[in-house]
Amino acid sequence: MKPLIVLCFLVVLINTNAQTYQLLSPDNTIKTIIHTAPQLSWELLVDNRPILSPSLINLDFANTPATTFAVKRTQTRTVHETIVAQVPVSRKNIPDHYNELTITFKNNIAVIFRAYNDGVAYRLATTFKDSVTVINETAQFNFGSSAVAYAPLVVKRPGQDVYHTSFEELYAHKPVDSFTNAQYMFTPVLAEANNIKVAITESDLDDYPGMFLQGTGTNSFSATFAPYPLEEKVAEGDYPQKIVTKRAGYIARTNGTRHFPWRALLVAKKDKELPANDLVYRLAEPSVVRDASWIHPGKCTDEWIIDVNLFNVPFESGINTASYKYYIDFAKQFGFDRIMMDAGWSNTKDLFSINPNINMDTIAAYARSKGIKLSMWTLAMTLDRQLDSALKQFQRWGVDFIMTDFIDRDDQPAVNFHKRIAQACADAKIMIMFHGTYPPKGINRTYPNCITKEAILGSEYNAWSDKPSATHNLTIPFTRMLAGPLDYEPGLLDNATPQQFRPIWGKVMSQTTRCQQLAMFVVYDNPLQIFSGNPSQGLTEPAFMQLLGSLPTTWDTTVIADAAIAKYIVTARRHGNNWFIAGMTDSTARDLQLDLSFLEAGKYNATICKDGINAHRNAMDYVIEETTLVANDALQIHLAPGGGFLVRLRKE
């Protein structure tokens, strides 16, 4: 029998007959056990509490015999570095500390495990000479004890397969064993087992389909992937898109020598440890954009959600030159960097067929004179077809940020579309936001100009449903946000209680308080926040809009002071010498005490915006107060049902 080889952070081989290996996190609290026989599988323990029981890992290739995992060699390393984020979503200097074990097999496949103090991840790698066809990938997540999960279940569309989705759903909260094999969910999925929270997701998704999870009717989830599309048709309508009508019997054709995406589990012992977990970013491929100085995060207005329903104006509002000049003036007055020209500025099928009510030269010249940038909405299928000429036209108009929409897939060609567009925009020095698509999953590190994505049931749903409840809003920081920045588009200024709420197109209201809408600008990760409220209402409340307009969108430091999944959250973020603290609650009113001990010594001028005394009846009720605070002060804040607050601290 071979001697045991013991390192400071792992026992490389703990059972020679069963071929079992062990990997520990740097703080020794997370233990991963890898079995290479009789099949490749892994287990996860946190504080010696079993989280995952043996869960299979495999890649099935075409024209190859069944995979066997005979070990050829192992390699270990410890990394203790710092990533300096080009676009600091939640913190600028990101500690990247992990232990890594690579097991190379005789079949040209290797598995790489990394153990962090806040999660664990693995990926497969291959060294085949020729390209390969991947029939399927096996990734099981077998919970060792009864588990519950928050999962966004895909609602199958008529005439389309289950892999067509905008990745915008509510989160079902129920036992893992109650999810059937007819239920598909996109990631992240948040589970809790043995009082440990684990968010299942992926990172470094490239030239490969995204990972869905499927219920099994047992205490287990199993990965599933959209098969490769063989035939497509264009679904016509206001927003045409390509629909897969025939799929292959495989999921990907790709290079034979490559690394496959990371399968990541973000681990938290307390709820408040989840929202600031940026493991997905750390796992992603480093930036391919060497000089990112042209990337300018900030705040943007948008007119689509309110249907350009302006008032107190001397012109007829709508998609026209006068309305966009009005938005430019509003942005300039309240500290926004740019305005969005959303769907309707051009024909959806032709970016050069401009709405006759718009004079782009006039709008572009006016924006330049005010120091405001323009941003443009595009349909994904049209942008793909007109990409080179469209980007040149955007550059002539001074556009530094575009949105593209209605992809609704994450099969291999759809994933490759994102990379192709991100690279072309990087070459043109234009930021890009994808709507109607899957979460970032690390692309915002590799392509920092891919500054945010939608993949969230956000503000727009208030226009036609009652889905964006306070509970849903409080679920987001513990689920979707873990995969990267999100474009919720907060800031609705027409606010109602759930009893008063009605979905009305053109007069969109939130079913939360005004202060919860404000708090989202700090609580939700998004380096390019989009304000969806009505500027005509904003002009009647200049103090509120000046506070909102002063908020940064990138952060040097983030502290989650307190949180409970789907119930409440208090987030503190630092930008330079100033701190911004925001909180949100579900439908339950709460009294919170803010501990300011994390502040550096000194005095701070505090601006506090909180729910008014009548916010439980009139959700638009708020108060703005000014005071002086010092470190170790404690603030008492009352949150109305569906409420929130924001505190801006400027150091003297």
Automatic annotation (TrEMBL):
Cross-referenced Gene3D superfamilies, in alphabetical order?
2.70.98.10, Aldolase class I (3.20.20.70), Golgi alpha-mannosidase II (2.60.40.1180)
UniProt KW keywords: Calcium, Glycosidase, Hydrolase, Signal
Q: Does the keyword Hydrolase apply?
A: yes
Which cofactors is this protein said to need? Answer: Ca(2+)
* Superkingdom classification of source: Bacteria
The residue ranges of the Glycosyl-hydrolase 97 N-terminal domain are 24-286
User: GO: which molecular function terms?
Assistant: carbohydrate binding; hydrolase activity, acting on glycosyl bonds
Answer whether the UniProt record assigns the keyword Transcription regulation to this protein: no
Occurrences of domain Glycosyl-hydrolase 97 catalytic (ranges) = 311-455
User: What residues does the Glycosyl-hydrolase 97 C-terminal oligomerisation domain cover?
Assistant: 554-649
Provide the leader sequence positions: 1-18
| Assembly, per entry | Monomer.
- Report what the protein is called: Glycoside hydrolase family 97 protein
User: From which source organism is this entry?
Assistant: Panacibacter microcysteis
